Amino acid sequence: MRKWLHKGRFVSLFAMLALLLMGCGDPTLSTLIPQGEVADKQYQLMLISISIMILVLVVVFVLYAFVLLKFRKKKGDNSTPKQVEGNHMLELLWTVIPILLLIILAVPTVMRTFEFSADAKPSSKGELSLKVTGHQYWWEFEYPKEELITSQELVLPVNTKVHVELSSADVIHSFWIPSLAGKTDTNPGDKSKNYMWFDTGSKTDVVYKGKCAELCGASHALMDFKVRVVSKEDYKNWVASFKAADGKSSANANGQQVFEKNCLSCHAVGQNGGNTGPSLNGFGDKDRVAGILAHNKGNVKKWIKNPQAVKPGNNMPKLNLSDEEIDAVADYLLGLKLK
Amino acid sequence: MATHESHKKRSGLMDWLTTVDHKKIGILYLLAGGFFFLIGGLEAILMRIQLIKPENDLFTGELFNQLLTMHGTTMIFLAAMPMIFAYMNAVIPLQIGARDVAFPYVNAVGFWLFFFGGVLLNLSWFLGGAPEAGWTAYAPLSTSAQDTGVDFYVLGLQIAGAGTLAGGINFLVTIINMRAPGMTFMRMPLFTWASFVTSGLILFAFPALTVGFFLLMFERVFDANFFNPEMGGNILIWEHIFWIFGHPEVYILILPAFGIISEVVSTFSNKRLFGYSAMVFATVLIGFLGFMVWVHHMFTVGLGPVTNSIFAVATMAIAIPTGVKIFNWIFTMWGGQIRFTTAMLFAVGFIPTFVMGGVTGVMLAVPAADYQYHDSYFVVAHFHYVIVGGLILGLFSGLYYWYPRIFNRVLNETLGKINFWLFFIGFHLTFFPQHWLGLMGMPRRVFTYMSGQHLDEANFVSTIGALFMGAGTIVLFINIIVTASSKKVADKDPWDGRTLEWSMPVPTPEYNFAQTPLVRGLDALFVEKMAGNGKMTPAEPVGEIHMPNGSILPFVLSLGLFIAGFALIYANWIIAGVGLGIVLLTMFLRSILDDHGYHIHKEEVEADIKGGRA
């Protein structure tokens, strides 16, 4: 495939197109600036199809412009133009050429479609397995082999093939990291689990943006997540420190007490806590509050004070906490850092 | 029962409520569809205003989801479909040389069902909020919504959908049975052909939707569990049923637009349609293939590579007959004498716009790449290129073309051209940047986006474009008012037409043809013009004309269903029973009361012919 691409006569057109499309958008979000193997192959498919389509557009537009300019009615000309029934040769031509163009497109289409779903299931021989669960409106990420569950922020080692199992706890969501791979829906129900794989690319210490791509309720627009790609070494350290997390924070103990009393039934910290809400281990290291707000104390307090004002329709209740208690919990959460 | 003939002339409002005349029902469809088009357009502009800048907080969360749901639902079911039916009603009986549709009473039932369904759906805005699960209403989002929005959606559309099905069947029968002598299938104008195929698609696609809506209704109203995985249901059932209807629906919408464009391009190039039989074949083929591609809406659902590949190739195949159409239109213009009237301008704008929507369609047919495009703004751009750039430009073209036939006035051409340029430029400004937004990672159906993602500029341009489109539409309405207030009655054949509808006097007599015309070839009127006659040869002597009586029953029947639907939303079984009782009662009355219609006497017809009224 690649060889054909580089040798083919499309090369120059490709280069021009790539120039035109490159630099389009945010390098951690745009599908036009692919960073991993899957996104890269998808980008190539886009280029192939766009090239064929531009060819079609140019032919049609040139012909069309010619006809519109040449055959306008001239003043005073009242003759009746020749009534043409058709032309078999021409009609055959514009049936056969599109068929050929579509065959050219169909071959890589089918190839890649099979390639992207082959060997997607997490298995023992895979490099890295991941279970993604969509919730209204946050993402749960389970690393089954490492036996840890985190939320909102994926941490992944560089140059690694990731096998993903996708499901949902409520409605349909869709898991999309445009820079690394196209989306796959997370369906509720055991029978409707999905599988995909992607490659984390060669850049380290980048944070890619992830999106929910299926309308899932009032805060669908705010269901962002992050993918932090780190070196293999850093990844190992991260796993180790995550597993060693004990819910101790650098902040004063008061915050921890309030948290354990009010929040722990839903949110896991250290080895304890429920799983109806996102796990908060390593909260202090995260990039965003609730997936969208800038990571600072003011926003943590804003969120705890009235979650509905930030993400309408989410399932976190408005807790009956005093301002001091909220302040203490915010300090506690921001102090939850992994070593 | 009474068998004697009786005929009551009704006037004013009562005339419109009881009419079974296809010309008047066409106007009703156009007015109601136009009204819903304005509402849907307003919803679109509100959404674009919310998205004009990042992190805007004008319409957020649930309210935005209501806007996007109602925009899509309104535009598809309550604006586009009725406007198509408006033209089918106004034009088809005239194009095939018939005095009315096959079932005038059913025609009225179809309109009133659509109307009451649309009203019911839109009442949700005032009664606890509109539906918010998208026009696709995917389960379990739609089944788990706590408020009554989705109930209004399912019951309103169920009622409106029944009307559409009735209309589709009616036009199938009309086109098969009511053609004038000599009007063979292969002499039918392309608009009639396209509407024929569309009616066939309605016949097969809408029952799927009806079944889907019944399942959804049972989930919502009676707590059934078809889509609930915890109770052994499966969410994918809804997606499949919806798209088994939903994809043919796309062709139900676009084929009549193809028909309109074929008529307009041919008339204003003063040439017969190039490759007529290929055009007919392509139309039928598109309709047929349209049923086997629904999974391309579900490539990311996880149906596996085999399914995805099969549907990918089937989808690509549709590009071939569509390409045939494009080239045939261009070669119809080739060697012609193109007159750039407003109707023709819309048609000329349609062709390249639709080609652009078509090529992105082929791109979307590539599953492995679609994983990136799917549910992003790229898809939004694609289907608006096809539906607005295709269908709506086609409908506008048809409006300017047939307006003299429907309303006896020619729309103002200067205002028409302003209308076209504002709308056309606005359209491309709105939707072209959205291709890029999608590729740059913006999902669709989001009420906001954060700044710093390189999405701001394109969104801004898009909103400005939407305002242009709004302005274009306002100019159209100014045009309609200006034209209505002018006294100048249209010529009976203002465009030098080629088909039968331009052979009749203005205004069209209520019985259409005093004498059924004899059709002697494709472009029946043009054939006569070339033969030097300038008018149709009658196929029968002047005689009595049998006409159907108007009836209030279609209105009452639809009102009964409206009441029943309303009551079901609030689980009020008594009132629901009363509503259904009204429906059954009208059906009973319709069956038991013989109505033989009435005859227009030969003398009256002769007087009309003498006076130039027929």
UniProtKB/TrEMBL annotation, chain A:
PANTHER family: CYTOCHROME C OXIDASE SUBUNIT 2 (PTHR22888:SF10), CYTOCHROME C OXIDASE, SUBUNIT II (PTHR22888). SUPFAM superfamilies: Cupredoxins, Cytochrome c, Cytochrome c oxidase subunit II-like, transmembrane region. Keywords: Copper, Electron transport, Heme, Iron, Membrane, Metal-binding, Respiratory chain, Translocase, Transmembrane, Transmembrane helix, Transport. This is Cytochrome c oxidase subunit 2. It is a multi-pass membrane protein. The keyword Heme applies. It is found in: Cell membrane; Membrane. It catalyses: 4 Fe(II)-[cytochrome c] + O2 + 8 H(+)(in) = 4 Fe(III)-[cytochrome c] + 2 H2O + 4 H(+)(out). Its main location: membrane. Its EC number is 7.1.1.9. It comes from Fictibacillus barbaricus. Belongs to the cytochrome c oxidase subunit 2 family. It is an enzyme of class 7 (translocase). It comes from the Bacteria. Residues 125-241 form the Cytochrome oxidase subunit II copper A binding domain. Binds a copper A center. Subunits I and II form the functional core of the enzyme complex. Electrons originating in cytochrome c are transferred via heme a and Cu(A) to the binuclear center formed by heme a3 and Cu(B). It holds the Pfam family Cytochrom_C. The chain crosses the membrane at residues 46-69, 90-111. InterPro entries: CcO_II, CcO_II-like_C, Copper_CuA, Cupredoxin, Cyt_c-like_dom, Cyt_c-like_dom_sf, Cyt_c_oxidase_su2, Cyt_c_oxidase_su2_TM_dom. Its cofactor is Cu cation. PROSITE patterns: COX2, COX2_CUA, COX2_TM, CYTC, PROKAR_LIPOPROTEIN. Residues 250-337 form the Cytochrome c domain. Residues 16-120 form the Cytochrome oxidase subunit II transmembrane region profile domain.
Automatic annotation (TrEMBL), chain B:
It is a multi-pass membrane protein. CDD domains: Ubiquinol_Oxidase_I. It is an enzyme of class 7 (translocase). Its EC number is 7.1.1.9. Pathway: Energy metabolism; oxidative phosphorylation. SUPFAM superfamilies: Cytochrome c oxidase subunit I-like. It comes from the Bacteria. It is found in: Cell membrane; Membrane. Keywords: Cell membrane, Copper, Electron transport, Heme, Iron, Membrane, Metal-binding, Respiratory chain, Translocase, Transmembrane, Transmembrane helix, Transport. It catalyses: 4 Fe(II)-[cytochrome c] + O2 + 8 H(+)(in) = 4 Fe(III)-[cytochrome c] + 2 H2O + 4 H(+)(out). PROSITE patterns: COX1 (PS50855), COX1_CUB (PS00077). Cytochrome c oxidase is the component of the respiratory chain that catalyzes the reduction of oxygen to water. Subunits 1-3 form the functional core of the enzyme complex. CO I is the catalytic subunit of the enzyme. Electrons originating in cytochrome c are transferred via the copper A center of subunit 2 and heme A of subunit 1 to the bimetallic center formed by heme A3 and copper B. Belongs to the heme-copper respiratory oxidase family. PANTHER family: CYTOCHROME C OXIDASE SUBUNIT 1 (PTHR10422). This is Cytochrome c oxidase subunit 1. It comes from Fictibacillus barbaricus.
